[in-house]
Amino acid sequence: MRDDTARTDSDGLARFGYEQSFERRTGRFASFAVAFAFVSIATGIFTTYGSVLSSSGPLGIWTWPIAVVGQLAVAFVIGSLASRIPVTGYAYQWTSRLANPVLGWIIGWISFMFLAVVVVAVDYTVASTVLPVLLDYTANGGITWAVTAVILLGQAALVGGSTRWSEKVNNTAVSAELAGMVLLTVLLLVVAAVRNDMDFGNLWSRGALPAEGYWSFGDLTTAGPWVLGFLLGAFTIVGFESAANLAEETTDPERVVPRAMWQAVLASGVLGFLFLVAVTLAAGDPAALAASGTPIADVIKQTLGPVVATLLLLLVVLAIFACGLVIMMTGTRLTWAMSRDERFPGWRQWQRVSPRFGTPLRATVFYVVLAEVILGLFSAFSEDALFTLFGAATLLPAVIYAATVALYLAKRRHLPANGKFDLGAWEKPVLAVSVVWLVFELSIFRDASFRDAWLYVLVMVVIGAAYLVTLLATRGRRALDMPDMHSIDGAFAQKEQI
């Protein structure tokens, strides 16, 4: 039965102009685990909770449910595209086939930029904030750079060496993160209640922020305090679409991938908010906690003791490693997919699948080398490298999601239902929620604190544009032809006959 399904999936892929290059081994839980690991609430909350306390106070956690609803709507829209075009390369493929190859290339390049910087951002977190506390040492620039570099190499070794083992490691990490976050939430609530340490006033506190101007939207270059609180959800609830970039390795991707996306967002959203509430109730003095580099660990240590706090840090290390692992897996697949179409710099090298390992090994080597270069540049030239990395890693997915939703709005009539994942009567309200949310989210990045993040985007876009011009000059418009691009409706019709 599994062989029949794999054969059907491979035949469906052929309708889009490609031959099967990878073995289809990714099942339902593995697909969900990829999406959940990229979101990684342990990573996102541990990393950004302190910033939210400083910018918005504890009251900022109430932006989380709004962000989750917005991102859940986006996940449904993207899931609809992923179900109809189940091809590795996700937004690059969707935009190229439904809009035009030039715009598809641009979106593919922006996606690549995001994946290249976000893997450095999450791994840098381990080296700069988690391991120094866990192992009790003082981190400086050199040590942080070296530890991050080693983590990147370890993830690359797994991704390039074996997809099967990468998924096993990720599945284990996700299972541990789910169980650990549930257990920590329950323990925090129970122990804090028994010890009478709950402060419900914290849930409505602005911390050290003044009441005047708190609810302001800000001006052209400044976002109001409550608006900045949305960055907690905007940074954390991203990457769920990574499941779509393993579409050609997933069994029945039209059904499995979309469900993995929205289930990962929903699970992350509900569990993440319960954990935020529990931590905030037990936070004590939020103004003092905001000054800590590891506020989550401080609350756990104060409430549950040093042993549990140490276990939390170990859980965070595992979650961040898995998050970086999935990001790297996603980035190498995108590099491979664009190279397969002969439109990525150095494509002749990166389009190959290793016959020994069954992975895009050369694309993995390229990707990790680039990540190391980005790490070195940010470490050398940015005084606040971590914030710059987080800024770019929050801005770029918002741009990608906005472009993808706009594409769906414009082309949804050209996407016939496939009977496996359809929005049906919910399509218009889901689209409305996703559009409102994305417009609001993008408005946050007018804040001057994101200047360096915008600069990174600008530099990378200029590099990409220069390559695109060179590609068109040397090979002409045929360089951007997509395999079987002109017959996407026919691909759906033929798929239904298989």
Arithmetic mean pLDDT: 88
Instruction: Determine the structural class based on helices, strands and strand pairing.
Output: mainly alpha
Strand fraction: under 5%
Q: Radius of gyration, Cα only, in angstroms?
A: 22 Å
Biggest sheet character: none
Described by the principal axes of the CA atoms, the overall outline is globular
Distance between the termini: 15 Å
Keyword list:
mainly alpha; AA/rel_permease1; 498 residues; disordered C terminus; 20 helices; Amino acid transporter; membrane; transmembrane; single chain
Tell me about this structure.
This protein is mainly α and 498 residues long. It is built from 20 helices and no strands. The two termini are 15 Å apart. Residues 490-498 have low confidence and may be disordered.
In short:
This protein is an all-alpha fold. It has helices spanning 2-14, 28-39, 41-55, 63-84, 90-98, 101-135, 141-161, 163-194, 225-228, 231-236, 253-281, 286-289, 295-304, 306-340, 347-350, 361-381, 385-411, 427-444, 451-475, 488-497.
